[in-house]
Specification:
33% helix, alpha+beta, nine-stranded antiparallel β-sheet, 363 residues, 12 strands, Alpha-D-Glucose-1,6-Bisphosphate, Chain A, domain 4, 11 helices
Length: 363
């Protein structure tokens, strides 16, 4: 797991970068930044009306798309939304839109493979919803009509880099392809606070994306082991614009997280996390040894054909390397977890994600 490909693969949010939306009364909750014309209304339209089943209104969504086109690689603060600070990050991915969507929205390419730096596991829970994602990139492409995929997703995050908190949450999801704009918008709604954060440990460097998880509630940061923290508000919309051989991307993110009614998240935290997301995602998708989506799908099907016990046997060499790294790091907490038959605590999605990453790296 420490070879160059995985080392380069190191989302974003050390705070957690997912595409979420929020509760009522957000449109007037502006903060210190000047209002962006139409933006709050566009977010409201997507996160409430379109997510709930209404047909999208391209004119109402246009301010979001225009913002991404105008701010290619910018890192910007945003007006507060739902009482939460926000930020925007633009960036370019140097691959065509169709294969990008096949990497990002594919039931046979786990999210934790593409975003090992932020996602522990991600499962689309709505029956048939995962297969519906294939409509975004299947031939004939591009789609000639609007494509809207809605469903429920259950995610668990990697540990926050500063606090060590890992979070589980239920998300309401919308993937929207607009043919006239040649745009894909990815929206999620976290309809209630996340579960209480549990302790997780990074092994080695951030770029390596190797983590160990406990079931103990709290944070690993000194003095905060007792804290019952939750992600309280998340609003995020990812935008992907087809530009031929490249894709112009933009992420709008608002977040509120903390404990005892207090939020520990500042605008600067979100901006830094989005910068990390940009760098890590580009490292994954620009890696010279990255297999084509079709090859990854074949690898996934091979692993998915194995029993849980077969997968746990195959994961043992990877976990042995984790133990070696934990010893180098002098991380007694991580070593204790790894030595307690850690493979048995990993669910099927985690096992397949870790093994796929190891199998796909250049030998």
């Amino acid at each position: 797991m420490s070879a160059p490909f995985l080392a380069a693969r190191g989302w974003a949010l050390g705070l957690v970068l997912f595409f979420f939306c929020l509760g009522p009364g957000a449109a007037n909750a502006l903060g210190p930044h000047a209002p962006l014309p139409g933006l709050e209304q566009a977010v409201e339209h997507l996160c409430r009306e379109v997510l709930a089943g209404q047909m999208p209104d391209a004119a109402r969504i246009a301010p979001i798309v225009a913002h991404v086109r105008a701010h290619g690689d910018d890192s910007l603060g945003l007006p507060r939304y739902a009482g939460a600070p926000g930020a925007y990050q633009g960036f370019v991915l140097d691959l065509p839109m169709q294969p990008l969507l096949r990497y990002l929205y594919n039931p046979e390419i786990p999210q934790q493979f593409v975003k090992p730096f932020s996602i522990r596991s991600s499962v689309w829970a709505t029956p048939g919803g995962a297969e519906e994602q294939k409509r975004l990139w299947a031939d004939p492409w591009p789609p000639q009509t609007v494509v809207a995929v809605r469903g429920e997703q259950h995610d668990r995050t990697t540990p926050d880099l500063s606090t060590g908190g890992s979070y589980a949450m239920r998300l309401e999801r919308l993937l929207l392809y607009l043919p006239e704009e040649r745009a894909l918008l990815s929206v999620s709604v976290q309809p209630e606070p996340s579960e209480v954060g549990t302790k997780g440990y990074l092994l080695g460097s951030d770029e390596g994306s190797r983590y160990v998880y406990s079931t103990e509630e709290g944070l690993t940061r000194a003095g905060l082991g007792w804290v019952s923290s939750r992600i309280q508000v998340n609003v995020s919309i990812g935008v992907y614009l087809d530009d031929g051989d490249a894709v112009q991307c933009g992420v709008f993110q608002w977040m509120k997280a903390g404990w005892s009614g207090l939020s520990a998240v500042k605008e600067s935290h979100i901006k830094n996390s989005l910068l990390r997301y940009r760098e890590r995602l580009r490292a994954v998708l620009h890696a010279p040894g990255l297999p084509a989506p079709e090859k990854l799908e074949a690898m996934y099907r091979m692993l998915d054909g194995k029993t849980d016990e077969e997968l746990r046997q195959e994961i043992l060499p990877i976990l042995a390397a984790y133990r070696e790294q934990a010893e180098q790091d002098k991380s007694r907490a991580a070593l204790k977890i790894l030595e307690a038959d850690y493979a048995q605590s990993l669910d099927r999605a985690e096992l397949i994600g870790l093994l796929l990453g190891d199998l796909a790296r250049p030998k």
